[in-house]
């Protein structure tokens, strides 16, 4: 039985991304459609988690406290819509830190699997705007979905590694589609 689990990338899926990184609470601008989509998924019995690369920490652009404030804001917004984000995990490392958790490696997803007490992520969903999100999800056995928000259009234009991914306009469209699928 596949876990009723949706793992979300953060920047470009849940909130506006920036090529200059999302460096402060003021720059953390969730998409209203995404907050509503997360609430709808969790109210429908889906476990929603977040797996995000945050190399801005390693780069010194912001600190863990600032990141925690963003994630507190996110959880408050979702709870206000009657939903829940079960867990948010992040990779604070930079590209040269040789960690095992920076997407496209599946380390963040493995951490979620362990912390959520799930035997496998086979059949769960990974939703992202970048190829590395899809690669991490597929490496962990997830179905993959690309959204056109954030870097999604750029990811689509590059055209590689998208063979398995379903493409959606945004997280709301993904939630609409998933919630319309017959229960397995
Ligand atoms: O999309 P998620 O994983 O939630 O977060 C992405 C961010 O950590 C940042 O990741 C950076 O990539 P590098 O880490 O510099 O390769 C850049 O793409 C930034 O534009 C982006 O804001
Ligand atoms: Mg992203
Ligand atoms: Zn890492």
Automatic annotation (TrEMBL):
<dbReference type="GO" id="GO:0005975">
    <property type="term" value="P:carbohydrate metabolic process"/>
</dbReference>
<feature type="binding site">
    <location>
        <position position="9"/>
    </location>
    <ligand>
        <name>Mg(2+)</name>
    </ligand>
</feature>
<feature type="binding site">
    <location>
        <position position="91"/>
    </location>
    <ligand>
        <name>Zn(2+)</name>
    </ligand>
</feature>
<dbReference type="Pfam" id="PF13242">
    <property type="entry name" value="Hydrolase_like"/>
</dbReference>
<keyword id="KW-0119">Carbohydrate metabolism</keyword>
<keyword id="KW-0378">Hydrolase</keyword>
<dbReference type="InterPro" id="IPR006549">
    <property type="entry name" value="HAD-SF_hydro_IIIA"/>
</dbReference>
<protein>
    <recommendedName>
        <fullName>D,D-heptose 1,7-bisphosphate phosphatase</fullName>
        <ecNumber>3.1.3.-</ecNumber>
    </recommendedName>
</protein>
<feature type="site" description="Stabilizes the phosphoryl group">
    <location>
        <position position="52"/>
    </location>
</feature>
<feature type="binding site">
    <location>
        <position position="129"/>
    </location>
    <ligand>
        <name>Mg(2+)</name>
    </ligand>
</feature>
<feature type="binding site">
    <location>
        <position position="101"/>
    </location>
    <ligand>
        <name>Zn(2+)</name>
    </ligand>
</feature>
<feature type="binding site">
    <location>
        <position position="99"/>
    </location>
    <ligand>
        <name>Zn(2+)</name>
    </ligand>
</feature>
<feature type="binding site">
    <location>
        <position position="11"/>
    </location>
    <ligand>
        <name>Mg(2+)</name>
    </ligand>
</feature>
<dbReference type="GO" id="GO:0034200">
    <property type="term" value="F:D-glycero-beta-D-manno-heptose 1,7-bisphosphate 7-phosphatase activity"/>
</dbReference>
<dbReference type="InterPro" id="IPR036412">
    <property type="entry name" value="HAD-like_sf"/>
</dbReference>
<keyword id="KW-0963">Cytoplasm</keyword>
<dbReference type="InterPro" id="IPR023214">
    <property type="entry name" value="HAD_sf"/>
</dbReference>
<feature type="site" description="Contributes to substrate recognition">
    <location>
        <position position="102"/>
    </location>
</feature>
<comment type="pathway">
    <text>Nucleotide-sugar biosynthesis; ADP-L-glycero-beta-D-manno-heptose biosynthesis; ADP-L-glycero-beta-D-manno-heptose from D-glycero-beta-D-manno-heptose 7-phosphate: step 2/4.</text>
</comment>
<feature type="binding site">
    <location>
        <position position="93"/>
    </location>
    <ligand>
        <name>Zn(2+)</name>
    </ligand>
</feature>
<dbReference type="GO" id="GO:0005737">
    <property type="term" value="C:cytoplasm"/>
</dbReference>
<keyword id="KW-0479">Metal-binding</keyword>
<comment type="subunit">
    <text>Monomer.</text>
</comment>
<dbReference type="InterPro" id="IPR004446">
    <property type="entry name" value="Heptose_bisP_phosphatase"/>
</dbReference>
<dbReference type="InterPro" id="IPR006543">
    <property type="entry name" value="Histidinol-phos"/>
</dbReference>
<dbReference type="GO" id="GO:0046872">
    <property type="term" value="F:metal ion binding"/>
</dbReference>
<feature type="active site" description="Nucleophile">
    <location>
        <position position="11"/>
    </location>
</feature>
<comment type="similarity">
    <text>Belongs to the gmhB family.</text>
</comment>
<feature type="site" description="Stabilizes the phosphoryl group">
    <location>
        <position position="103"/>
    </location>
</feature>
<keyword id="KW-0460">Magnesium</keyword>
<keyword id="KW-0862">Zinc</keyword>
<feature type="active site" description="Nucleophile">
    <location>
        <position position="9"/>
    </location>
</feature>
């Amino acid at each position: 039985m596949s876990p009723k689990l949706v793992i979300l990338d953060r920047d470009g899926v849940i909130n506006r991304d920036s090529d200059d990184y999302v460096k402060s609470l003021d720059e953390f601008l969730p998409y209203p459609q995404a907050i509503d989509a997360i609430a709808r998924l969790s109210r429908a019995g889906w476990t929603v988690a977040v797996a995000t690369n945050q190399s801005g920490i390693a780069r010194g652009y912001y600190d863990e406290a600032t990141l925690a404030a963003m994630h507190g804001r996110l959880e408050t917004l979702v709870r206000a819509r009657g939903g829940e984000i079960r867990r948010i995990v992040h990779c604070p490392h930079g590209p040269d830190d040789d960690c095992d958790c920076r997407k496209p490696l599946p380390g963040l997803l493995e951490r979620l699997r362990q912390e959520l007490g799930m035997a496998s992520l086979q059949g769960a969903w990974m939703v992202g705007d970048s190829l590395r999100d899809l690669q991490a999800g597929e490496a962990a056995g997830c179905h993959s979905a690309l959204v056109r928000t954030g870097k999604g259009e750029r990811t689509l234009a590059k055209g590689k590694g998208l063979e398995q991914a379903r493409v959606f306009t945004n997280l709301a469209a993904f939630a609409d589609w998933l919630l319309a699928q017959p229960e397995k």
